[in-house]
Design brief:
71% of the residues lie in helices and 0% in strands. The chain is mainly alpha-helical and 201 residues long.
């Protein structure tokens, strides 16, 4: 994965409070791209409800919406360095990821339904559709497999945040842990997820 330009990489991380002239979410995304877990926590708190709402409007199923939302935030953690403020707002970038993931989920489900309807009719296999669906299912399976490799606390914290839609503070209360401990466990868990998924920094 390409990193930010050398000038950004060598500059000190921007303090959102000190940069009122830039998009707050954009500043957070830049910091997330540098591996700042506190910035990721703030970004999650800012956009999680909107991300879930966008996805739910497309997939129209709360369970699937929760799964897709988790995938979106994993993707944000993995690809935040791709955000370019010159090409649009951070909010637009995040919600576009969410919408794209939701559409992919609906298309995969529709493809499966269409295949079942055609099961009794001999015809050439639609290889492109099959490949798309298999790739999507493999990615979901890989995320679930990687989650199983985390510690119990890491897995519970990440599951509560992404499946349950809880903020970091709510996760801390649910698990009866100190907030810094929850942030550390989630940061370490996300790093382990990133490594398990085979994404380079």
């Amino acid at each position: 994965m390409d990193r930010w330009r050398r000038a950004r990489a060598t500059a000190s991380p921007p303090d959102v409070a000190d940069t009122p002239d830039v998009d707050v979410l954009g500043a957070l995304l830049i910091r997330v791209g540098r591996g700042d877990d506190d910035a990721f926590a703030r970004l999650y708190d800012e956009v999680s409800s909107r991300v879930y709402g966008v996805i739910l409007r497309v997939v129209r199923d709360s369970s699937q919406a929760e799964e897709v939302a988790q995938e979106v935030f994993v993707e944000i953690w993995r690809t935040a360095t791709r955000f370019d403020a010159a090409r649009g707002t951070a909010s637009g970038w995040v919600l576009t990821l969410a919408h794209r993931r939701a559409v992919d989920r609906v298309r995969a489900a529709q493809a499966a339904t269409d295949r079942e309807k055609r099961a009794s009719v001999p015809e050439a296999t639609a290889y492109d559709v099959v490949v798309d669906e298999v790739a999507g299912r493999l990615e979901q399976q890989q995320v679930r497999r990687c989650l199983r490799n985390l510690t119990d606390v890491q897995r519970e914290a990440i599951t509560l945040a992404y499946y349950g839609g809880q903020t970091y503070r709510e996760v801390a209360v649910t698990l009866d842990l100190a907030l810094p401990t929850v942030k550390t466990r989630m940061r370490d868990g996300l790093i382990r997820l990133r490594d398990c998924l085979g994404v380079g920094r």
